[in-house]
Design brief:
The structure is a homotetramer of 205-residue chains.
Chain A lengths: L18 H22 L2 H7 L4 H7 L3 H9 L14 H17 L1 H16 L3 H6 L6 H14 L9 H17 L8 H15 L7
Helix pairs in contact in A: 1-2, 1-4, 1-6, 2-3, 4-6, 5-8, 5-9, 5-10
Chain D binds a DNA duplex (31 and 31 nucleotides) through helix 2 and helix 3.
Chain lengths: 205, 205, 205, 205
DNA sequence: TGATAAGCGAGACGGTACGTCCGGTCTTGAG
DNA sequence: CTCAAGACCGGACGTACCGTCTCGCTTATCA
């Protein structure tokens, strides 16, 4: 997250970091998150569980929020290449991946806390939000304007509003209530409703 | 919120509470909330601003979350009588009131924090969620089944899913990004999309 | 201590005080004093032990100090008539009665506390100090000037200084160290020293 | 007062204490003592005046009594080497230094309170009493037995009793009544009386 | 005889002060 | 420059308890 040790040029004087510590800390973080939640998670507890010390953690992540964020949403950058194909399938994939991401136990524990910190210190904004739906947020506006051109989508539809609906419902559905609520039927229903909502008149998807 | 002790019979032994303290505390709470946010709000600071002391606050609200909740969402119970009339207008009113409620500065500051506490200590669940959209949450399923009967709504539409979409987008739109994003056009757009989404085939609203 | 109900004139409208409460409170006070000391004695504890309530106590004594003072040094006004006879016997009697008064367990527990309150709020000064050695404080200056006249005492001796020595040693001897330290021999020794100290030159008592 | 931990060898792991905090706290303590007295002095107030916090104070002194004691009677250990010379001058110096020590405003404010705590929790006994007259308490018995040998002092005189008289009068004179009472004449008078009191018969000092 | 006034027990309130937890930082000594 | 150990600083906490107040009742005196 910080000081990606520019492996090419400088030699990073002094003792190199023990890579196992970073791994152990991230692992300990998700564990503790699921056990006690975001608020009660402390750096000291994480360090202790990872068999290291707080300063070693602070050297790697400046903030509890940064640590939790990386632990829960690793920068896998496995950003599935956005498919420019079928609109319905694209939207479904967006919603599904969002819901899956937010449904993991550690994410359920972390997201409200992260959101709260984000509200108080908007510095994290960029870092955190940028990954929330991976590269698919970039795909959406492109595909929508495409759809408007070829008559799949009403011209009035704005991608940003659509994103609010999709992300908002994904967030709400995972954040409140039991996770069982979210099943394939729920996904189908939402996508169906949205597809009908954005379709031009006299056309039935 | 607590101890309106059967106002008819018993007389509540002991010195009665100074009603002005409760008022002052609630007022101070919203002020401080807007100034420093949920996380940095402390009971001591609230008490001090209200010219009283922490114990007086703790006597009234067991938790910072309870205090903030009551300060931001007072139990006005001015639950506007849900109108059983026009569906579009009903939905718009729901969304609008939700957005307005969540757009107040104090609510913007409070909601993520409350949500985080709620995730960690689900005791508040009932208390807090129950009021989020007032009596309108009760109105929705009734009106939807009505709509299904008279052909306004597709039979597959479930009120719960609809609620996820409406609440979720309202929450997301107010929680992230600047409040200016939410304007009448945004409301119209969302309602339009939803109305089209729930309408039966071959019918254009 | 307060409101000596001027038994002659007014009849004190309203319900009269329950005399047993006052007694019980005083008794409870000395008990608790010996058990836990002045600082840890609370009005609530006293009231509870006396089977009554704090307000009933506060109605009688405005302050813990007043209560303790009256409990430990009752205004017996059994002020033994000061004898104007033998000087040595008079001084011995003064020292002895002082030491005995201050040696009671309750007094040992109370005096330092009272002294401390007295230092902080000199209002009690008059009330408390006035009784410390009963009427004998009045006797001393008279008997000393008498002694100077008849050659028992050096003319330079001032009664106030003598009082400092006698009271001071009595206080110190009882306040610090175990009570066993103070025995007849100690008394004799102090009196002997003082008698020699105040005697005129070339005279051996 | 505590933990000057074997200043020779070990280096005390962990972050060292900020020495300025200790100084500032002691200074604030004497100030507040003179302003409001012992009882109303609060650790929190001291900490605040010293621009630090209660925990920092509690780390250094376990009790208000310990703190006040060190603030008022610093362990200067400037224990003036006891002079084995002139008896009268030695006693005068004892009395004078005691009176001066106890006459400082902060000492006048502190002593009764300390005494009261000491009565309730005799743990402090050793700590506090030990310094009350510095090394001179050790000098007295030695010099007295010397004096008995060389005929300056009656053989019956015990140093402990003498100490009661000297300390007791010093304490009483400073503790009650205005400080102006204690002037050189008072000192002379007391010393004169004591010197005559301990002298052998037929000898005039 | 009824009105007045004060004392009483019960119990909660308002507020001071407390002592502690703990989050994040810093120092030391070694690698 | 990193690591581990460990103490320190200070923000915030939640509570114990003190003295007060309110209540409803009781007990005397006074009109």
């Amino acid at each position: 997250m910080q000081s990606p040790p520019d492996s090419i040029v400088a030699k990073a004087a002094g003792r190199p970091r023990d890579a196992r510590i970073g791994q152990a800390v991230l692992h300990a973080t998700t564990e503790i998150l699921e056990e006690v939640g975001y608020q009660r998670l402390t750096i000291a507890a994480v360090a202790s569980r990872a068999k290291t010390t707080p300063p070693a953690v602070y050297r790697r992540w400046p903030t509890k929020a940064h640590l939790v964020h990386e632990a829960v949403f690793p920068s896998t950058s496995e950003d599935v290449l956005p498919h420019y194909g079928d609109l319905r399938e694209g939207l479904r994939s967006m919603l599904l991946s969002g819901v899956q991401l937010l449904s993991q136990p550690s994410a359920r524990a972390a997201v409200p806390g992260l959101l709260a910190e984000l509200a108080a210190a908007p510095t994290l904004h960029a870092d955190i939000l940028s990954r929330f739906a991976g590269g698919e947020w970039a795909w959406l506006p492109i595909r929508i304007s495409q759809g408007i051109e070829n008559g799949e989508v009403r011209p009035e539809v704005r991608a940003a509003t659509l994103l609010d609906l999709i992300s908002g419902s994904a967030f709400l559905a995972t954040a409140v209530g039991p996770p069982e609520r979210i099943d394939p039927q729920w996904i189908d229903e939402v996508i169906d409703l949205i597809m009908r909502g954005i379709a031009p008149d006299h056309e039935t998807n």
